[in-house]
Amino acid sequence: MFSNLIQPTGYKTKIDALFLKREYLTQAQLKDYLRQEIFRVTENIVAIQQKYRVVRNIVLDMDIPDFLWESGYFEDLNSDERKKYIGFRCSDFDMDAYLHEPSCYDGRLPYLSIIVNLVVLSKYLRYLQEQESNYHTDAVAIQEQALPKEKEESADTNPTKIVGKSNPFKSTLKANEIKLLTDCVNEANMFTTTVSAKILTDFFNCKLNGVLKVNNTRLLAYLMMQLSCYNYIVYEWQSVIANNKLILKKIKGEPLTRTDLSSATDQAKNIYPKGYEIIDKYIKQLQKG
Questions:
Q1: Three-state DSSP class for 221?
Q2: Any idea where the domains of the chain sit in the sequence?
Q3: What is the C-alpha end-to-end distance of the chain, expressed in Å?
Q4: For residue range 125-158, what is the model confidence (pLDDT) as tens digits?
Q5: Are the beta carbons of 239 and 203 closer than 8 angstroms?
Q6: Per its UniProt entry, which superkingdom is the organism in (predicted)?
Q7: Cα–Cα dist 184/243, whole Å
Q8: What CA–CA distance (Å, rounded) separates 102 from 94?
Q9: What are phi and psi of 93, to 5 degrees?
């Protein structure tokens, strides 16, 4: 029951808000924002733990299924509070009533709203820390790519060696399969413009240069994730898109970074994006050949 409270009571809202802010922040602003948000959320978590000592160990056990009954928190309750948890029937829980007033069950399930808030903040903090780590990974990757590129351009000016560039996506997609995916992305309105088979072919050949602007990054991530799962493209597709600057953000027009794509992929895994059923339909057709 408890795990079902997390998504509708703040976690998804926080993640979605962060994802939207990426569209408006520069890389430098995003770096500062992530750092500030991490500090702010940490302060809130510590304040809750200091005020409600009984929940201080929740963050250590929150990944345990049914941890309210099976973790150290249960042992920290007094006997009366423990009896309330033992005697509560999950079938009596009214989600609508809880969403309207989160503290309405605190009498029957002590500290419930406090615990939900603490877990939401803790999971959000973990997500923020992952995003900050991805940001630094992207920055290091960009720095590492700069020198080899300069060496290649200065050491060899023969254009025939650039033409011999390998296929970073390691795509196994055939012409008829590209045509099917073209119908897929157009039906799903994945990009701000209608896509032709030629454009999609150039995309998988990494020959695009800012031609595509994405409408829904999560939907794009879901499609690429499915293609990767079925070995149509390489597992490291996020880096391929970012390194080759294949797709632009809808609002700012900047190339999607690996951090943008990683964040969108995490969200797509947790909550399927609107339009995922269109992609599933075409992926099934793709598998049928």
A1: helix
A2: 3-137, 165-288
A3: 42
A4: 888 888 877 765 555 454 545 445 444 443 333 3
A5: no
A6: Bacteria
A7: 25
A8: 11
A9: -75, 130
Query: At residue 164, what are phi and psi to the nearest 5 degrees?
Result: -80, 15
Residue with tokens 């390691």: 170
Is 257 within 8 Å of 138 (Cβ atoms)? Answer: yes
- Token pair belonging to 12: 């998804």
Tell me which residue of 192, 161, 198, 160 sits closest to 178, measured CA to CA: 198
What tokens were used for 266? 């995490």
Residue from 18, 7, 10 nearest 131 by CA = 18
Instruction: Return the SS3 of 23.
Output: coil
| Residue written as token pair 């294949």 | 246
Place of tokens 């829980």: 93
The SS3 call for residue 234 is coil
Six-digit token string for 255: 């190339």
Contact residues for 169 (Cβ-Cβ < 8 A; gap 6+): 204, 206, 233, 234, 237, 240
- Tokens 């939401």 belong to residue: 120
The answer to whether the CB of 41 falls within 8 A of the CB of 124 is yes
Tokens 């943008």 — which residue? 260
